[in-house]
Amino acid sequence: MAASSSRVMLGPLVAAIDQGTSSTRFLVFNAKTAELLSHHQVEINQSFPKEGWVEEDPKEILQSVYECMERTCEKLTQLNVDISNIKAIGVTNQRETTLVWDKETGEPLYNAIVWLDLRTQSTVERLINKTPGRNKNHLKHKTGLPISTYFSAVKLRWLMDNVDEVAEAVLTHRAMFGTVDSWLIWCLTGGKSGGVHCTDVTNASRTMLFNIHTLDWDPELCKYFDIPMEILPKVRSSSEIYGLMVSPHLETRESRFTIWQSNGRIWCLGDQSAALVGQMCFQEGQTACLLKVVLIYLFNCYLLQPVMSEHGLLTTVAYKLGRDKPACYALEGSVAIAGAVVRWLKDNLGIIQTSTELEKLAASVGTSYGCYFVPAFSGLYAPYWEPSARGIICGLTQFTNKSHLAFAALEAVCFQTREILDAMNQDSGIPLTQLQVDGGMTSNRLLMQLQADILCIPVVKPSMPETTALGAAMAAGAAEGVSVWSLRPEDLSEVTSEKFEPQINPEESEFRYARWKKAVQRAMNWETTEPISNGNGETSIFSSVPLGFYILGSMLMLIGAKYIAGQCPL
């Protein structure tokens, strides 16, 4: 930090709200130097009402934003930084997470259904069964997406079918739908007293209701899912003024802030899209990898026209940096479980007490000793899109210990990235020569080295890890009417970075990767799509196909044995 006497010369500041799956942060940057001046972070609680269900409290999400803003402003004031110099606020958010609220009361009508929630699996299967040839890519020509539990349309359909309050609000024209960005922007710009109900193109492109060619909601898609278009937010570009922030909660702030969202989305930028901007991926073919606490995203920019993947990737809107600017597109590979493996080892198995312990534990052995971990807790996303897969650990021996399992967990992140990268190379026909990475997991140096070893290419990590929030701030500061941040290549600050070079030979990398692929096949087709209920709303053991066959076979053998014994008395 510079001395307080020099802070008068800081110039315009731009802030970013980074609302992710596991936490919320508020960060403030110097628009001239891209220096991070201060930030605050608050963890977000998740609830798991049933197996496969993941929810978050919309009010807690909103309150975490207020708290982060207040604490960050207090820190800036202590540093003699004039917070009235904050000229705009960008929003970057977890994307497909789905909310519905009452526009008259301002109250959420149900918890937010998180993007990795699996409750709609049977709905997805029924939709796929009704398509010609049972084709999960039936809507891909418009949406760029397969029919999957991942995206918002099926979550919204579930809310309308299963939550009375939502169904009634839709019928009485009081319902508002949105992803997290829409909820935050509506609340921050006034809520029931004139809040702005909008989203940006990047978030909208993750709903299965948005046409990525026309860049608007598609009437045919809405009809397909039977969703009224009146409940949808207005779609805006990723870099424009959405509204003015009005919040009685921020008593320390005298000024109102311009609200910008650069989807994530980049990543509202939804977070993934924001990472592209933060890593200055403005040229065709540039690739960024976001290693989040929960998941992995890998993007390859294709600029002005969408390219449909033939190898299991998604076609998505990367960003649209202005109302009159063209949309830029990307191929995206999404992996559901990456950093969440660390949380699982900590919270479920108790192998580690803190996330930072994992690197030390894995480094103590330097190998998985033939143990492979496929963390398909919510099925497999790209490039498989297989919701029936489940997590598996294989290759265990009596020699295997928790350190080997820790190493296998880190390798799993790298193998999943390799699968997506292979698909991108096949789609583009141009092998990637290095990978730019971002996100919370990049602080794990062993993971970065493993990633370079498994990919057989250098991995480049920026010295300033907050490039997702930086991307949101850049898009906000560059918006027309704000214009305190230039996105012209000649004006962008050079980002310092660290490069990790491969340290193993390609043959060893290929051998380990082949074993991983073998483990993935073992994880496939583990669950049925229609769980059998025992009458109490709980899933029967027969919903697991292998276990069901085993038990049924055992019962038949016992019955047969008794029958034979009855026919042949001693």
From TrEMBL:
GO terms for cellular component: mitochondrial outer membrane. Residues 305-479 form the Carbohydrate kinase FGGY C-terminal domain. Pathway: Polyol metabolism; glycerol degradation via glycerol kinase pathway; sn-glycerol 3-phosphate from glycerol: step 1/1. GO terms for biological process: glycerol catabolic process; glycerol-3-phosphate biosynthetic process; triglyceride metabolic process. Keywords: ATP-binding, Cytoplasm, Glycerol metabolism, Kinase, Membrane, Mitochondrion, Mitochondrion outer membrane, Nucleotide-binding, Transferase. Its EC number is 2.7.1.30. Its main location: cytoplasm. One of its GO terms (molecular function) is ATP binding. It holds the Pfam family FGGY_C. It comes from the Eukaryota. Residues 14-278 form the Carbohydrate kinase FGGY N-terminal domain. It is found in: Cytoplasm; Mitochondrion outer membrane. Belongs to the FGGY kinase family. NCBIfam families: glycerol_kin (TIGR01311), PRK00047.1 (NF000756). PANTHER family: GLYCEROL KINASE, SUGAR KINASE. This is glycerol kinase. It comes from Salmo trutta (Brown trout). The lineage of its organism: Eukaryota, Metazoa, Chordata, Craniata, Vertebrata.
